[in-house]
């Protein structure tokens, strides 16, 4: 089904954004006044040593605005998973009422290495073994539709149990009781008060129960 319009609040009442330093200075109070910004997933780290320069500020100001937060890590194929987990542990604070740590796993913006399914699964498992010492919750794995088809579909058992954050810009993905996806990124060119320039837009699966209780803490 080709989608010509963004998902409505009636169909998907919990909507949100994901941001990084590319969004510059964000007015979080203005964002919080908009019903389509119930949550924000904020870039924290990449690889084994990169830390997003806006993460600490965005993390703090999103909380002050009453927006439910999560942090994400961009997973590189050219560093050991355990090294990358240490970067996350040194950067992301452990706080109540936040979304599980998200892991962005994709080819775009990554290094030149193309791992096999087994290589990727081994490094993701090593990453999660290290991370769960502080963040034991089931993680969120962000993937594009082609990446999902190549590495995850039918092979989910190779990876740690996870929520799926699926990027699908051209069409609405199939959703049956929040399977296979929990979060759907439906646009990368959203325009919102409080952010100059485009921003990624997302929705939470309408029947999800794992996350929905977190949004009761948002200030409205």
UniProtKB/TrEMBL annotation:
Sequence intervals crossing the membrane: none
Family: Belongs to the glycosyl hydrolase 25 family.
Species assigned in the record: Rhizobium terricola
Pfam families noted in UniProt: Glyco_hydro_25 (PF01183)
Superkingdom assignment: Bacteria
Gene Ontology biological process terms from the UniProt entry: carbohydrate catabolic process; cell wall macromolecule catabolic process; peptidoglycan catabolic process
Protein name: Glycoside hydrolase family 25 protein
Matching PANTHER family: LYSOZYME
Key words of the record: Glycosidase, Hydrolase
Single GO MF annotation: lysozyme activity
InterPro entries, alphabetized: GH (IPR017853), Glyco_hydro_25 (IPR002053), Glyco_hydro_fam25_subgr (IPR018077)
């Amino acid at each position: 089904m080709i989608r010509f319009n963004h998902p409505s609040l009636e169909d998907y009442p919990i909507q949100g954004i994901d941001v990084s330093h590319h969004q510059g200075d964000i007015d979080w109070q203005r964002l919080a006044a908009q019903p389509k910004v119930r949550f924000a997933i904020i870039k924290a780290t990449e690889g084994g040593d990169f830390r997003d320069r806006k993460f600490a500020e965005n993390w703090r100001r999103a909380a002050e605005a009453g927006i439910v937060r999560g942090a994400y890590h961009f997973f590189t194929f050219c560093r050991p998973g355990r090294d990358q987990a240490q970067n996350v542990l040194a950067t992301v604070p452990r706080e109540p009422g936040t979304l599980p740590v998200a892991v962005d796993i994709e080819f775009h913006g990554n290094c030149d290495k193309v791992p096999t399914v087994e290589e990727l699964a081994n490094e993701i498992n090593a990453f999660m073994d290290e991370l769960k010492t502080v963040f034991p919750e089931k993680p969120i794995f962000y993937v594009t539709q082609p990446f999902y088809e190549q590495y995850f579909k039918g092979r989910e058992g190779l990876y740690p149990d996870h929520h799926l954050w699926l990027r699908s810009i051209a069409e609405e993905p199939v959703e049956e009781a929040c399977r296979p996806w929990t979060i759907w990124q439906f646009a990368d060119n959203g325009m919102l008060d409080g952010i100059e320039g485009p921003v990624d837009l997302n929705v939470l699966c309408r029947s999800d129960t794992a996350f929905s209780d977190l949004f009761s803490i948002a200030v409205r």
